[in-house]
């Protein structure tokens, strides 16, 4: 396993102006030990609360978020460069929505669940009880720092766990969560924040949390899984994507073009489920391209002097990190060298992170822009002729996070959605599965595994403990010692009379009764 070396203080910049906001340091081992000690102690308090009491705590966070929304959004924009509306819809609104749904869902999902007990175990009862795992380590990325730092933490808390969060070193939002938990009066030490880069992340894993919930790149996900495997720590990996969107020739062009533009450019394309590849049916390709290029050129792009307090200051925010701009540039260069054409956007003003929305045509699967995660405001377009070809192209990817299918023919959309090898599909929309907290979210293939949100979002942070209740009696079970020829024959009679195609209820009942009576006799001996 590769160990990363600490590099000293990490500067946190405002990506819009490039001014330094503050710096953070790696967290040293003694402090990490203290954090775990406090988490383990707090966990006992959390586990003793009923789920309804935990819900009350989480609602304090909702109230705090609503009361302080403008302040939270402003700090978020300063560290990510998002447009104000993107920050509001994809983080603040989503947080309120998820809390709203889980406040009702958690008591139902986490209640003891009775399950049937088969007739061969007559007289016994079975149930599942959901218990906390202990201390959960949450490692979020930089693209949705409030949402990704908060939502998995609250779901883990609802399931009775203590939580330690290590925010991304690019968008640590220093002090934001601490103030939120303190001022809202949330259970002390239930969710703690630890700053640093991957170095601190590795130190935190070495302290053996009971589960790791990671959201980030495929590269880091593999490293985390390797380290966690040494201690057999379970991991949920929410990794990258290369989302396709498939546009059939019967769509309403105006709506679809607007939807695809939003799906590709929201949060400046820095979403794991942004549209990264667009497949358009051949006979509408030129019309689609003309309309999307005309509309994209009219989008207002982030600038260094934009007024971040104004919700209409720009449509497309800026890139959060410089290294991501370099990846976009590499992908565009590679595509152009291999024959693609850039119809708008394509390069940023030098020395800035304000990358304009970009449309590329004549793309193909020999190009990085169609095969590797670009994570920027770029929509590469490729033609297809048949449904089969569209499915084949969309599935030709190491990733399998999400996708969208656009057509008036809902049966065709359903067929294509089923054929796509992804964790999520939106029909005639994009990224909207994430808008419904009742739906589980997660990927397949190199987009990771594990699901959060939906019922799975609570169960993933729980020990689903199976309990079978038998009575105290004199009866010796037929499968206990001693083993005899008679018992064996009776067991065989049960299998052939009860499980086989031609059931023989009389034989089954008499074999069962005989086995029971043998058990009783053995007890008497
Ligand atoms: P990243 O993998 O570089 O970093 C994510 C987090 O991991 C950061 O907090 C980082 O400090 C930490 N980290 C790095 N090395 C580590 C190590 N060895 N041990 C422990 N922690 C370590 O990802 P990123 O660049 O911050 O985020 C972008 C990626 O996240 C994209 O690939 C995007 O698709 C993905 N993403 C996925 C989802 C999803 O739900 N599937 C959501 C958002 C983003």
Describe the structure.
- There is one protein chain.
- The longest helix is centred in the first third of the chain and has 26 residues.
- The protein has 3 domains: 222 residues, Aldehyde Dehydrogenase, Chain A, domain 1 (3-Layer(aba) Sandwich); 192 residues, Aldehyde Dehydrogenase, Chain A, domain 2; 46 residues.
- Strand 6, helix 6 and strand 7 form a beta-alpha-beta unit.
- It is globular, with a radius of gyration of 28 Å.
- The N and C termini lie far apart (60 Å).
- Helices cover 43% and strands 17% of the residues.
- By secondary structure, the protein is of the alpha/beta class.
- The protein has a 7-stranded mixed sheet, with helices on both faces. A 6-stranded mixed sheet has the order 7-6-5-8-9-19, sandwiched between helices.
- The protein is built from 17 helices and 20 strands.
- The site of nicotinamide-adenine-dinucleotide has 27 residues, from helix 7 and helix 8.
Radius of gyration: 28 Å
Average per-residue pLDDT, rounded, comes to 96
CATH class of the largest domain: Alpha Beta
Going across the major beta sheet, what is the strand order? 12-13-14-11-10-16-17
Number of domains: 3
How many strands in all?
20
Bin the helical content: 40-55%
Query: Which structural class fits the helix and strand makeup?
Result: alpha/beta
Bound small-molecule species: nicotinamide-adenine-dinucleotide
Name the CATH architecture of the largest domain.
Answer: 3-Layer(aba) Sandwich
Task: Spell out the CATH superfamily of the largest domain.
Answer: Aldehyde Dehydrogenase, Chain A, domain 1
* Cα distance spanning the termini: 60 Å
**Can you tell me the CATH topology of the largest domain?**
Aldehyde Dehydrogenase, Chain A, domain 1
Low-pLDDT parts are none
């Amino acid at each position: 396993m590769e160990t990363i070396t600490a590099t000293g203080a990490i500067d946190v910049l405002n990506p819009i102006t490039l001014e330094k906001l503050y710096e953070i340091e790696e967290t040293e081992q003694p402090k990490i030990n203290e954090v775990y000690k406090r988490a383990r102690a707090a966990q006992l308090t959390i586990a003793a609360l009923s789920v309804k009491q935990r819900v009350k705590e989480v609602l304090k966070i909702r109230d705090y978020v609503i009361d302080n929304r403008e302040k939270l959004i402003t700090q978020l924009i300063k560290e990510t460069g998002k447009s104000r509306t993107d920050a509001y819809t994809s983080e603040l609104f989503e947080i309120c929505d998820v809390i709203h749904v889980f406040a009702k869902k958690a008591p139902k999902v986490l209640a003891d669940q009775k399950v049937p007990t088969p007739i061969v175990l007559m007289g016994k009862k079975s149930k599942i009880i959901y218990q906390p795992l202990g201390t959960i380590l949450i490692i979020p990325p930089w693209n949705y720092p409030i949402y990704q730092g908060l939502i998995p933490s609250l779901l883990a808390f609802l399931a009775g766990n203590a939580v330690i969060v290590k925010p991304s070193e690019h968008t640590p939002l220093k002090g934001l969560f601490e103030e939120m938990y303190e001022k809202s009066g949330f259970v002390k030490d239930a969710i703690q924040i630890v700053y640093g880069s991957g170095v601190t992340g590795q130190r935190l894993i070495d302290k053996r949390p009971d589960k790791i919930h990671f959201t980030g790149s495929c590269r880091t996900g593999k490293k985390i899984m390797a380290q966690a495997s040494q201690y057999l720590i379970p991991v949920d990996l929410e990794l990258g994507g290369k989302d396709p969107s498939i546009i059939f020739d019967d769509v309403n062009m105006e709506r679809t073009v607007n939807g695809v533009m939003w799906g590709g450019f929201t949060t400046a394309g820095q979403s794991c489920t942004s549209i990264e590849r667009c497949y358009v049916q051949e006979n509408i390709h030129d019309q689609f391209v003309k309309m999307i290029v005309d509309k994209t050129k009219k989008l207002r792009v982030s600038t260094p002097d934009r007024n971040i307090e104004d919700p209409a200051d720009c449509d497309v925010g800026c890139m959060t990190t410089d290294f991501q701009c370099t990846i976009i540039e590499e992908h565009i260069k590679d595509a152009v060298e291999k024959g693609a054409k850039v119809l708008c956007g394509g390069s940023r003003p030098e020395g800035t992170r304000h990358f304009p929305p970009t449309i590329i045509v004549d793309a193909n699967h020999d190009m990085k822009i169609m095969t590797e995660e670009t994570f920027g405001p770029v929509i590469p377009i490729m033609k297809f002729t048949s449904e089969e070809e569209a499915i084949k192209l969309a599935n030709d990817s190491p990733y399998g996070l999400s996708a969208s299918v656009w057509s008036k023919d809902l049966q065709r959309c359903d067929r294509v959605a089923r054929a796509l090898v992804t964790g999520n599909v939106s029909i005639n929309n994009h990224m909207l599965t994430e808008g419904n907290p009742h739906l589980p979210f997660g990927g397949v293939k190199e987009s990771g595994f594990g699901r959060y949100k939906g019922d799975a979002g609570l169960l993933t942070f729980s020990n689903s403990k199976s309990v079978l209740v038998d009575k105290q009696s004199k009866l010796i079970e037929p499968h206990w010692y001693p083993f005899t020829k008679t018992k064996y024959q009776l067991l065989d009679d049960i299998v052939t009379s009860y499980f086989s195609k031609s059931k023989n209820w009389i034989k089954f009942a008499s074999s069962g009764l005989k086995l029971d009576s043998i058990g009783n006799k053995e007890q008497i001996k």
